[in-house]
Amino acid sequence: MISVIIPVYNNQNTLFELTEQLIETLKNYGVEIIYINDGSKDQSAEILNQLSDQNPMVKVIHLAKNFGQHPAISAGLEHATGEILILMDADLEDIPSNIPKLIQSIERGNDICFTIKIEAKKFTLNKLLSKSYHILIDSLLKEKNPTNLGTFRAFNKKVLNALLMYPERNILYGPLMHHLGFKREFILVERNTKYKYSSYTLNKRIQLAINSLISYSDLPHRIFLWMGSLIFLLSTMYGLISFIQYIYWGKQLMSGLTLVIMILLIILSTLMIGLGIIGSYVFRVFQEVLNRPRYLIQEKRNL
Ligand code: UDP
Ligand code: MG
Predict the structure, then answer these.
(1) Residue of the nearest CA to atom 1 in ligand 1?
(2) Looking at ligand 1, which atom is closest to the CA of residue 126?
(3) For the residues of 11-39, what is the DSSP string, one character each?
(4) In CATH, which of 3.30.110.10, 3.90.550.10, 3.30.450.40, 1.10.10.650 is domain 2-217+292-301?
(5) Which atom of ligand 1 is nearest to the CA of 39?
(6) 5, 88, 89: which to mutate for ligand 1, most atoms within 8 A of CB?
(7) Whose CA is nearest to atom 23 of ligand 1?
């Protein structure tokens, strides 16, 4: 049995075609398609209900509101029953006819099969952001992974069980699956550029990057430590030099209000940055301690 897990957020234009292509491609396998409607505001919910009425293979989880892509994926993973799991986007950028390639990779004995997107080299702000995000994550995790990794991937039950063991509220499956280990393969797949629509706003993207920076590294507060140490060292040296000069030659180095203000500002800003960083960790610890559910389910269909 193959479980295809697809989070849906305002994808009314692609759902019919996506389902049709999935069923066509996977007709030789036992398959369940789990759509998680992440509080879509368009006609997606109605379309999904219609699809699940027509076809028992189509299973739908309606979440109570928009919880975000990753909590939606959690909901899908927790309900999947297949031996092989496929994760993909609902916007048809991932081409369903590539799925057999992924399945074959798992059947050859790999635990995870990632896909690398082949895309036209067109420069956009989003691409630049996404690229820097991946480079950052790779360097933080000290693992050499290809950039341009897609959400589109396949994995087996072993990996699913591992994923389900991670209890954090702020879960991010991208970096998490990087650092799981297991036997993995990366394959190149085409992407469909006809559907160039992204439900991620710039703001959401930046939030995601900050979130993974904070959850997956100790870099932010280490930077602060370095900065603090450097400023401490420089100011002690400055003080020492001024003192020696004063003692021996009776003169002072740079002085005046400008200098005082400058030093005050540097110290103040460093402290504020530090407080902000500590704040974001405390906030996250607070969220984890609350132990709130990642998502709430409004309704299930065919499940
Ligand atoms: N998505 C979601 N909740 C959200 C935002 C996105 O479930 O709040 C889903 C969306 O329906 C899609 C996938 O996450 O299936 C990836 O979203 P999108 O295609 O907009 O992202 P991009 O392709 O730009 O990475
Ligand atoms: Mg997309």
Answers:
(1) 69
(2) 24
(3) -TTTHHHHHHHHHHHTTTS-EEEEEEE-S
(4) 3.90.550.10
(5) 3
(6) 89
(7) 198
Q: Which atom of ligand 1 is nearest to the CA of 90?
A: 15
Among 200, 202, 205, residue to substitute to test ligand 1 (most atoms within 8 Å of Cβ) = 200
Domain boundaries, the chain: 2-217+292-301
CA 277 – ligand 2 centroid, Å = 31
Helix axes 15-25, 44-54, angle to 10 degrees: 30
pLDDT tens-digit profile, the chain (303 residues): 999 999 999 999 999 999 999 999 999 898 999 999 999 999 999 999 999 999 999 999 999 999 999 999 999 999 999 999 999 999 988 899 999 999 999 999 999 999 988 765 566 777 777 777 777 777 766 666 666 788 899 999 999 999 999 998 888 898 788 888 899 999 888 887 766 667 778 888 888 888 877 777 777 777 777 887 888 788 778 778 877 888 887 766 666 776 787 788 778 777 877 887 887 788 888 888 888 899 999 999 998
Sign of CA dihedral 8, 14, 15, 21: negative
Residue 36 tokens read as 């998680």
Residue type, 186: F
